[in-house]
Amino acid sequence: MITAVCFLALAQNVFGERRGKAWQRRGMELIISNGFRSELQLSWNRRNYRLPAINLGSGQLPKKPVGNVACPSPCCCSGGRSALQQFVWSPEGEQTCCMRSCLSHDPLGPSDSSSFCHLTHFTSSLKIQVIEDDRNNRGSEPFVTGVRGQVPPLVTTNFLVKDQGNASPRYIRCTSYNIPCTSDMAKQAQVPLAAVIKPLARLPPEEASPYVVDHGESGPLRCNRCKAYMCPFMQFVEGGRRFQCCFCSCVNDVPPQYFQHLDHTGKRVDAYDRPELSLGSYEFLATVDYCKNNKFPSPPAFIFMIDVSYNAIRTGLVRLLCEELKSLLDFLPREGGAEESAVRVGFVTYNKVLHFYNVKSSLAQPQMMVVSDVADVFVPLLDGFLVNVNESRAVITSLLDQIPEMFADTRETETVFAPVIQAGMEALKAAECAGKLFLFHTSLPIAEAPGKLKNRDDRKLINTDKEKTLFQPQTGAYQTLAKECVAQGCCVDLFLFPNQYVDVATLSVVPQLTGGSVYKYACFQAENDQERFLSDLRRDVQKVVGFDAVMRVRTSTGIRAVDFFGAFYMSNTTDVELAGLDGDKTVTVEFKHDDRLNEESGALLQVAGQRQGPGRKCGMSVSGYKKAAGKRVRSGERGLAEELVTSIDVAETNVFFYPRLLPLSTTEPPAVRASEERLSSGDIYLLENGLNLFLWVGASVQQGVVQSLFSVASFSQITSGLSVLPVLDNPLSKKVRGLIDSLRAQRSRYMKLIVVKQEDKLEMLFKHFLVEDKSLSGGASYVDFLCHMHKEIRQLLS
Ligand SMILES: [Zn+2]
């Protein structure tokens, strides 16, 4: 069990008026990488023609100002420049004939064929050029973090990172690596200043985990005033006897045991031997002072809390889950090279009442204890509730065999919910440890108990002002409960199996505030949905997780972290409290100016956190995803989407808002633009957005392809809605199944496959994800949007 303090530092460039243009350019690239498209309004000013909103997925955005690029269109302005390329990037007054001729038309007017044609050319590239270009230009060389203000490759590019003093973009990714000097300039630019922080990010095997620094009993070296941790940007002065803090400028004494001489450049001669003086990310071994109550923590516990009401039994959930747990318990997370996991486990089942189980190794059979007073739950046993899996294996196996039988004939349909979480949290409190509750729940908790909920699913409210109330918790009870959980380091993961309304917005409050995850399997049936559920469960139980962490973001003078988004709780304005933190979770931090920034010193951001657990360390980040989250999501799903979107990383946000559409006819499929226009009826495509996965089959696809992939003779014989491809021994089948597996492996949740045939009724569902097209309920397509922009700019120019 390591308790560690993790540390991430990042320096950013700062610039004033004269470098404004360069900044806009960088700003735009970041918009693309961060998927901010729908957040940014059409904002541009008279002088620069900035169009920050149009980038994501646009085909031909040049990476640098366009010189004399020939317009690809022979039917208008041939030989001139492409109008859109031109006006995105050109400095004022450089419009050419092309610009003038195109802008002299109204692109929205019915008679205007040439402008429209021009715009169509603009989007006519099949590929998503910005992604392809970045992959080609930046995928081969490692990204070196030593250069201040350098923009990392896009999240869609595979690249390696060399830590040379700034945190790897895997841990911290900013919306901009160049920050305006003043808040006025930042306001004008309209790019949010934010960082997405992913403290436990998984690294590719080629990259080393952060070094662990042990400063012994004295603990990590910090600034006396602002408590920032030692980092490569601290300035050593007076021959190395003192250091000036790069965050608050306070001059501190260097403790004798840490003293080292400086070289002629003022750098400590041991700078490259010490991770904290040369790297952007590292861990400090924490001393007992950093631990809660000044005491090293006990190993954490996992408590499995299983709904055994009628619905849970009828759908086959309880039997499936109990069977799976028997083997899954061998894969609990373990520390470093430990032979067995230190995590202890406990079991509770419930419907209207709670059943605790004593699984002490000395028992021949597990014992059940019923708690029927759900108004004030208590833990009926201490000894024998939380146990080591290996020691109690026989009793646990016996319990998991018996649970499905015990409740097989239940008629109980009502459930409680808050008392279940309360009981799990009390059990951790009694055992004086942090840990995680895995809740498997099926229905709206309507039984008489604290946290009882009403069915408030009112379809009439949808598309009205009151719709938002459906996404707010219906009682404050869960917020209070969540606070207690956070104080105990109790993280809650919720697996929902509803066959009717369950009020995700209220039930997800505790998971959301405790760093947990919510998984939802509507109309679950064990035989159909087991692959997806078991895959999520296995990943969730095995993943590295830290508990009871506190994280703080420090910034250099002039900027300040003002807003935080993610799955955590904050009881004050600076400390991010994470009951649990795993490798999928991010924290987003938004910054504001306090003062004018200095171009020489730049801007610094340091993320530090303490954590304990069978995993590694802790961290964080910024932005405004929340507002966009609901846009393309149906109302019933929205609670879940909000929970997801606030805590997923940039790569997952990117694909969530702009799904990947891969044609399978090419060997190394580059993604094509998410529009129906790009679909060829002679091809098949995979579409994924991190949650959904579709295989679209064109109506005139070759018979050989149909045979190789589906083992049927013709298109008409393919079963629409199929979720598993037959395992066939031919190159195409292997390739497609391999690609599906690799897409699934990249995402934090299992994506269930749905086969969609062209012109089939399921195609409606698929089209929902073609985000460049008009949505089914109307609105503007991406091309409409570009036309609108074109028109607005034309007006401005005239
Ligand atoms: Zn300081």
Automatic annotation (TrEMBL):
GO cellular component terms?
COPII vesicle coat; cytosol; endoplasmic reticulum exit site; endoplasmic reticulum membrane
Q: What is the lineage of its organism?
A: Eukaryota, Metazoa, Chordata, Craniata, Vertebrata
The record's keywords, sorted A to Z, are: Cytoplasm, Cytoplasmic vesicle, Endoplasmic reticulum, ER-Golgi transport, Membrane, Metal-binding, Phosphoprotein, Protein transport, Signal, Transport, Zinc
Subcellular localization, as worded in the UniProt entry: Cytoplasm, Cytosol; Cytoplasmic vesicle, COPII-coated vesicle membrane; Endoplasmic reticulum membrane
Occurrences of domain Zinc finger Sec23/Sec24-type (ranges): 220-258
One short Pfam name that applies is Sec23_trunk
- Organism of origin is Oryctolagus cuniculus
Q: What is this protein called?
A: SEC24 homolog C, COPII coat complex component
GO BP field: COPII-coated vesicle cargo loading; intracellular protein transport
The entry's family comment says: Belongs to the SEC23/SEC24 family. SEC24 subfamily.
**GO MF:** SNARE binding; zinc ion binding
TM ranges: none
Leader peptide range in chain numbering: 1-16
Q: How does it sit in the membrane?
A: Peripheral membrane protein
Please list the residue ranges annotated as the Sec23/Sec24 trunk domain.
297-541
Q: Which residues form the Gelsolin-like domain?
A: 666-739
* Superkingdom of this protein's organism: Eukaryota
